[in-house]
Amino acid sequence: MFAATAPCTLPIIALDTFDFVGYTDSMTANTLIRRELLSDQGRAVLAAMPPPESFPGRTAFAREVCARFGFFDALGNPRESSCRAALRDLDAAGLVKLPPARRSPSVAPRPRMSSDPVPAACGVPKRAGAVAGLDVRPVAGREEARILSRLLHDEGVSLVW
């Protein structure tokens, strides 16, 4: 049938993942970035940097931190998100003073559920197709969105905005 062949031997290469941050998953990268920034050498580098307030925002500061520490992924992109998260932790611990967070006005706030219960419907059939004169239209305004959210919540439907 098949000819016997010699067993295939593959070299096994062990890599220290602490040296190859770009090839690790994001959770490991987050931990490594925090560890590096908290080290004595990391604190010295952060202390030698221009103050965070001199940057236009937290993202610009995180980009500069990534450049100075070499926090890049496998494609060479700076690990801004992981770096910002680590810097927020350092800020909360009082080790770094970050500029205040800026909210983008282009991001609309998520609608909240109405705190008032919605009265039960009377005389409504079980199937939507059996409702005479059914008017389906988009939700208009925050108040209607809150009422819809409350109705769906009461029916056990979770809504992701």
Notable characteristics:
single chain, 161 residues, mainly alpha, 2 domains, 5 helices, elongated
Q: What does this protein look like?
A:
The protein has helices spanning 26-38, 40-48, 58-69, 80-92, 141-154. The protein is mostly helical and 161 residues long. It folds into 2 domains: 21-92, no CATH class; 108-161, no CATH class. α1 packs across α4 and α3 packs across α4 (80-92). The protein is elongated and about 70 Å long. Mean pLDDT is 75; it is low at 5-24.
- Low-pLDDT segments: 5-24
The Cα radius of gyration reads: 27 Å
Mean pLDDT figure = 75
Counting DSSP E segments of at least 2 residues, the number of strands comes to 0
In terms of DSSP E residues, the strand content is under 5%
Terminal Cα separation, in Å? Answer: 61 Å
Envelope shape: elongated
Helix content: 25-40%
The major β-sheet equals: none
How many helices in DSSP terms? 5
Q: Brief description of this entry?
A:
This protein has 161 residues and is mainly α. Helices cover 38% and strands 0% of the residues.
Indicate the topology.
Elements (H helix, E strand, L loop, with lengths): L25 H13 L1 H9 L9 H12 L10 H13 L48 H14 L7
Helix pairs in contact: 1-4, 3-4
